[in-house]
Design brief:
5 strands, 3 helices, alpha/beta, about 20% helix, 2 domains
Amino acid sequence: MAVVGVLGGSGVYDLDGLRGARWEKVESSFGAPSDELLRGELDGVEFVFLPRHGRGHRIPPSEVDYRANVDALKRAGVTDLVSVDQVDLVAYFAERRTLGSVYAQWGFPDTGRGCSAL
């Protein structure tokens, strides 16, 4: 039976609607993953969710340990992996040339090109 892993990007810190949802700590041979894993069931399918930047966006993109994240999901039994982010939100701000100021509010340095961490 498939276990679906969801790797959440910026702004995606939880999965609504999971039955029996519980946060679990999982170790990785590459170090600590970005956060605990949220495990639960949706429509008869088991899901394991990991917020890529940690809950509350604590980890900037350049410091995310992607190997630890994928390894932790694999150790949790994930067989299929989906990555979710807010590209539409980034595109919205990029069109308005305000992306740099938005990232600065999140604590990322401005590159001077209108964006910081893509």
